[in-house]
């Protein structure tokens, strides 16, 4: 294998690792966004419930 082939293989591995990291980051952001949305929804629902039942 030539040096150029080694460099290409190394670059492929780096690109795959970066893609994996990006995917994990995207999932983490999505989970946080869903969690915040659920919390805000529960708060709004609770305020509405209290408002209509006073």
How is this structure best described in words?
By secondary structure, the chain is mainly alpha-helical. It has one domain (1-54). The protein is 93% helix and 0% strand. It is built from one helix and no strands. It starts with a helix and ends with a helix.
For the secondary structure, the number of strands is 0
β-strand amount: under 5%
- Range of helix content: over 70%
H and E order = H
Number of helices: 1
Name the poorly predicted regions: none
Distance between the termini: 78 Å
What is the total number of structural domains?
A: 1
* Major beta sheet summary: none
Overall shape: rod-shaped
Structural class comes to: mainly alpha
Rg calculated over all Cα atoms: 23 Å
Indicate the mean pLDDT: 91
Looking at the chains present, what oligomeric state does this protein adopt? single chain
